[in-house]
Design brief:
With 297 residues, the chain is an alpha/beta fold. The chain has two domains: 166 residues, D-Maltodextrin-Binding Protein, domain 2; 93 residues, Osmoprotection protein (prox), domain 2 (D-Maltodextrin-Binding Protein, domain 2, 3-Layer(aba) Sandwich), CATH 3.40.190. The chain contains 13 helices and ten strands. It has a five-stranded mixed β-sheet with strand order 7-6-8-5-9. Strands 3-10-4 form a three-stranded antiparallel β-sheet. Strand 1, helix 2 and strand 2 form a beta-alpha-beta unit. The protein starts with a helix and ends in an 8-residue tail after the last helix.
């Protein structure tokens, strides 16, 4: 074989290898849903991958709700994003609600691997379940600790759009507690729920356990004593082909597992929602405090 033919053959082989590996030589695409916690976690993941792999990262944050983020993952628009076990179980897989965290994670992992070729990495340490919240100043709140106690009292309820539509949201709340409502639930963007509560437009909201404003407003979280809601452990859901194709990506992502808890996540969310700090700055501060990047000298 002459030199020209050899070079041509090697070039063709390299091109074929590149075509068979759609992730070769391109940025890691990190996604998130469209609320504060998701955007903060997406930015933390993106910065961590940049630090560890010295590889470009494309941020596709604030994509939209659960179904849009899931579709983006399946259609290769993103390679990974943070997701919640209970959300995956109920909203994506349409499986019955289960209250055992380990069982839910195992079921989600197995189904995602089989149906979507997506891997769920080890939990980050956050369990961001739905939290039914009332005003601390409401005279009734002094007498209620649980949803069972509060359910018959009658409430003007504010909810996010997904909570109203999902089987593990409003439907489960009503089925479990027969919650008495004084009118149809008021649906709104998640970011408006606390403002609606503050302005007395509603007197109960379906919030999330790690909302930053829970730590600074005069609010009370009612205990889900009958377990209407499943666990919502946060994990990175990543395409299997991406994890195989990019050396060190799995290991880098696993370094984030166990680095969070609910109080830490609540504080991160409050820095963005309450103190209006830039998301990139908040994410960098977390990674430094967690010992994942060196601090300033």
């Amino acid at each position: 074989m002459d030199r020209t033919a050899l070079v041509a053959g090697l070039t063709a082989a390299l091109l074929l290898c590149g075509c068979s590996n759609p992730t070769a030589g391109r940025a890691v695409r990190v996604g998130s849903k469209n609320f504060t916690e998701q955007v903060v976690l997406g930015e933390i993941i993106a910065q961590h991958v940049e630090h560890r792999l010295h590889r470009p990262v494309e941020r596709r944050l604030n994509l939209g709700g659960t179904l849009l983020a899931h579709r983006a993952l399946l259609e290769r628009e993103i390679d990974l994003y943070p997701e919640y076990t209970g959300t995956a179980l109920a909203a994506i897989l349409k499986q019955p609600i289960d209250r055992r965290p380990e069982t839910v994670l195992d079921r989600v992992r197995a189904a995602y691997r089989r149906q979507f070729q997506v891997e769920w990495l080890d939990p980050l340490g956050i369990d961001n379940g739905f939290a039914m919240v009332v005003r601390g100043a409401d005279a009734r709140a002094r007498h209620f600790e649980t949803l069972s106690q509060a359910a018959p009292a009658g409430w003007n309820l504010g909810v996010g759009y997904e909570f109203e539509q999902r089987a593990d949201g409003l439907a489960s709340l009503r089925d479990t507690y027969q919650l008495r409502l004084l009118g149809p639930p008021r649906s709104m963007d998640l970011g408006l729920l606390y403002k609606a509560m503050e302005q007395n437009q509603v007197d109960m909201i379906a919030a999330n356990a790690t909302d930053g404003l829970l730590s600074v407003m005069d609010l009370k979280v009612l205990q889900d004593d009958r377990h209407a809601f499943p666990p919502y452990q946060v994990c990175v859901a990543a395409r299997e082909d991406t994890l195989r194709a990019i050396p060190g990506l799995r290991e880098a992502l696993l370094e984030l597992s166990g680095k969070f808890d609910n109080p830490k996540m609540r504080a991160l969310n409050y820095q963005v929602d309450g103190l209006h700090r830039p998301v990139a700055e908040v994410a960098a501060g977390f990674l430094t405090a967690a010992g994942l990047v060196p601090g300033p000298r």
